[in-house]
Amino acid sequence: MIMHVKNNWWTGSIVGLLLASSSLMLSAAEKEQRTLSTAQQTAVQDVQQRAEDLKAVNQSIWNYAEVGLQETKSSQLLIEKLEAEGFKVKSGVADMPTAFVASYGSGKPIIGILAEYDALPGLSQKTVPYRESQTEGGAGHACGHSGLGTAALGAALAVKEAVDKHGLKGTVRLYGTPAEETGLGKVYMLLDGQFEDLDICLHWHPGNNTNVHLGSSKALVSVKFTFTGLPSHASVSPESGVSALDAVELMNTGVNYMREHVKEDARMHYVIIDGGGQPNVVPAKATVWYYVRANAHEDLERYYRWVVDIAKGAALMTRTKLSIQVDTDNHELIPNTPLSELIHEKLTVIGPPEFSAEEKAFARRIQQPLIEEFGQTFPVAIDSRVHTLLESKTSSKGSTDVGDISWHIPTGGLRTTCFAAGNPGHSWQNVACIGSSIGEKGILYAAEALAATTVALLENPVLVKEAQADFDQRMKDRKYITLIPKGQKPPVKIR
């Protein structure tokens, strides 16, 4: 997740004056970032020429609406497009059938672009500005990942065109990363060594506005606690039963008391995914699924051990047996200033798309239920500006498996406007927008910016070295520790 820091008009004016005055002292490398080279123009033009095909890819993945680890059609479509253009593809990597790595070019630097394509359950929605499911109870792209994967594809293909036309040295690599919504894909691909030789990693996400991510996120561990007891008739022979549900409830009570004694940035949330069958049977098995979060992974490690101790205590109190399954462990994002500055310049030089009166009217209708039901206000229908680049001193409240890559490789990311202004995350409003022309314009813009940034890195090794130096400085006192047991394979299913 990406945090945007808003400026008042005075701050924005001062920043503008500073940028204007500093432009007189720019180095050659910095000046290059403020323009598009011929090769970068080739990449941008290639995205534009592929626009209709990319829109069709987005529509296909949007309609497939496959949840994490089940994105069979979505990943296969991307693979087919890449193989048709001469990319070498390894599929089913890291023991995940829908994960893949596609490469084009040769030698260094190797620039990676991340693709996601998983949908969210229960959020099926038609491309209309009011709530109407496309498939009752079905999934929907409420985080915009149909567009995320599409723009990553468009960027990779555009870079390939620039490499071929201008004889650029280096490799572009598209990573198909499943199950981002539960923080799985990239972590297990990382532990499998799929990112070991990567020099730079680029990512993007559909958003309510256009900005460059220069900040951190929350670390997260996803873990399931299963208690096992003995069944019995809850009325006739309760003394013979050992309730697993009692253990779950006692554990949750303990964690809720724990909340008073953790840092303010900590988060613990849970759902009981198995609590028994019916009231007159003492539940012999019960499972509670936890997300534990913190701004720093070292804090997360401590909170996780504490939650495990509470679970063990609940098992002792109820005389149940406890098993623990860590599904994934996400680290906080490590920002990278040179990469963020480079991406921001490409977004600015290319310039954001314009939205039509019809698109703004669609966005206003999307906003209407939020106004009527929750009293929200929206100064604009669509925020089409490129927001000022500022490093955030506080972490965002979300988590992402991109964070783990950023602990190993210089990583930079961006957002482009694909949704109506103020849309809540993971909402039917987002599903409608990413499937509409509003989303399509943001998708193409993201592909152009990612492609131009990648080509700039291939053209200028100095930019890669600057990103690496920034990474080395930020990582010098950090050690990567994962809570995933060594050698553990990814889950076959999430739910």
Automatic annotation (TrEMBL):
EC number, as in UniProt: 3.5.1.-
What are the UniProt keywords, alphabetically? Hydrolase, Signal
What's a single GO BP term from this record? folic acid catabolic process
> What GO molecular functions are on record for this protein?
dipeptidase activity; para-aminobenzoyl-glutamate hydrolase activity
Entry keyword annotation includes Hydrolase:
yes
Membrane-crossing segments per the record: none
Gene Ontology CC terms, in alphabetical order: cytoplasm
Q: By its UniProt entry, which Pfam families does this protein fall under?
A: M20_dimer (PF07687), Peptidase_M20 (PF01546)
Q: Which InterPro entries match?
A: Amidohydrolase (IPR017439), Aminobenzoyl-glu_utiliz_pB (IPR017145), Bact_exopeptidase_dim_dom (IPR036264), Peptidase_M20 (IPR002933), Peptidase_M20/M20A_hydrolases (IPR052030), Peptidase_M20_dimer (IPR011650)
Q: Which residues form the Peptidase M20 dimerisation domain?
A: 218-312
Where is the secretion signal located? 1-28
What's this protein's name? p-aminobenzoyl-glutamate hydrolase subunit B
Highest lineage ranks of the organism? Bacteria, Pseudomonadati, Planctomycetota, Planctomycetia, Planctomycetales
